[in-house]
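User: Please predict the structure of the protein below. I'd like the answer in structure-token form so I can feed it into my own downstream comparison script.

Assistant: Understood. Taking the following sequence of 195 residues as input:
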Amino acid sequence: MLRLPAQQADRAPETPERENAGLGTAQRREVILQILTDSGDPVSASALARRLGVSRQIVVGDVALLRAGGAQIDATPRGYLLHRTGGSGYVGILACVHQTAEQLQTELYTVVDQGGTVVDVTVENALYGELRGNLNVASRYDADEFLRLAAEAPDSLLSRMTGGVHLHRIQCSSEAAFRRIEAELAARGILYQKN
């Protein structure tokens, strides 16, 4: 971990909020990457800002520049997460539809209860084409956190743009597990099926 030079450290006690204060932009971005590498959980921009002694806006800008430079950083509803490549298992895409918060909860719980992870959500937009949001919902805890955020900003749900129709990329252990998730979503009326 990068530390303040001795003359700067004398001015303020070294706390988590101040230990990285005064870093140059390149060093600060290295620290952001290291924090994300060390964390298996999403880290919010606010938490990074506190740790680095800068504003949230500075962190958002640093992450944008890191991503533009090729860093595989996912922005999830719970914070930034370093994209881990080479995951094992099966990844498939399902078309889903729901109108209510209860149906959204059913959708997410069904996937995670059957051993899947909701990697992202994609919708089609007339102006922009395909829009995608990273979710990385792998447990009921993750689902509950997403549902809490969705309740606070219901108009932010991408599925609102398409009458509830959307795609999910699902990661699970095998194709058999994926088919089980697909069947459970169909049984609950969440799987989109053109009539």
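That's the full token string. The mean pLDDT is 84.
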